[in-house]
Input
Amino acid sequence: MHDDEEWRKLFSQLKEVPFPDNLKHTILDKAQALHSKRRPYQWVRSLATTIAGVAAAGMLVVGAWHYGGQSPMPRLAHRISTTSPADNNSGYGLNVAPISVGFIVQDPQSSTTGVLQATLTNVGTTALKPSDVVGVLSFQQGGQPDTLIGADWATFVDPPNQPIDPGQTLTWTFRPIGVPTTSGGKFLGDPKLIFLEKGFVDAAKADFVWQKAPMKVTDVTTMPRSSWPEGKSFRVTATVTNGTSVPLKLNDAIALIWFSNQDRTDDWTQPGIVRFMHQLTLSHAPVLLAPGESTTVHFDLIGPSTLDVSTSHVNVSLIWR
Amino acid sequence: MTESSANYNDLHELEEWMERYGRDVMSTAYAYVKNYHQAQDIVQDVFLRAYTKRDSFRGDSTLRTWLLSITVNRCKDYLRSWAVRHEQQAESTIEQVSPVNIEAEVMARFTRDELWHALHQLPDKYREAIVLYYIQGLSGQEVATVLRTTDQNVRTRLHRGRVLLKELLSQRGDTRDAR
Output
């Protein structure tokens, strides 16, 4: 009865969905307003709307964490090749997972400092396993409309170690490691938490894009520092080279560092990856890397005791904040 | 070029996008969410999102296909959202008045409503293929690009969607005849 042309003719009647002028003007007004809020460079803008201040404590040679434990046994761990396949792309397209964070506070019931409590609700339609999402915890001064805009410090966090069913709300208490605190042990700034879906998506379809910095990362090595029953500390060292023809400001770059049991794993969101986020420099003064210039950076990190840095493959990627 | 002139050009470009593709985006959004007011919110989000991400459009597809891809994803996000699943959504239809021929307009409106209703009863995966192929006039390959699936899969969805739609329209016609 209906061939293709008849179907087309039938559906041609449905094309009359009006696009009202007032909607067009509203969109233009909002687009105009965006200009006044935005910074001049697109690569900055894309991340500024997302993780603006992923400012982990660090500097070109970052301060060490001091933990008790056995004496460090320095040794060279792994080297990876200069660039990974993901470096061919301009950024990491990420989507926010359907987990609503009802509130997040410093745990009032805890007798110890440095503990956070959050309520999480799965607002999606399928159960979420811990391996489905990656948490990003940030701290910022003052209220910001966006989760990560103006963040002073941020890190990856593993989600609760249990599935969350659709519509289920749970209270989650956790202790982030290495977060800057006051002398009284209180966290600096207000905590914000979001969860990302694992895997990358096209920029056009992403909730936000973490733009890669055009700097080559080479000679990545890992050296154990200390270990104790619950964890271990280690140093990751890398050479960073400005591959562009313009000076680049290291203050604006963030290092994503991840360890995997598989060689050349570029997807740091996947299960089983141990991942870190670290600023390249602590300096408030601009630190510029001239075109073609190289510098050595160090990241002192604390990881789980299960992480074997001598056998895992370490990867480093730089993004703009 | 000064920043203000760049802003002007960017906004002018956005306006052109809306002039050329506003109705396509709107009808696609409406086909997904079945609510004209909600469709307007999504359309606003789509154009602002496209505007802020315009530097990432690399021309691998047409601008129209790119906009429709964003629309499809925003609609899916909306349909997955907490509000949709926990709030009763009242359908709001499109009011269009033709002062010229009331009877013809009423009949046309009736046919449109029947078709929209049947379309909205289709499972999402069939409805989106039909909307993009028949309403937006995309090729099978373009539909596959927007939905991130294969050409063969699109053809299968179109076939099954047509079969279901035919049944639905037939049932509604029977009901109408019986009244």
User: Anything to note?
Assistant: The first strand of chain A starts at residue 91 and ends at 94. Chain A touches chain B through 41 residues (CB under 8 Å). Residues 21-37 of chain A form the longest helix (17 residues).
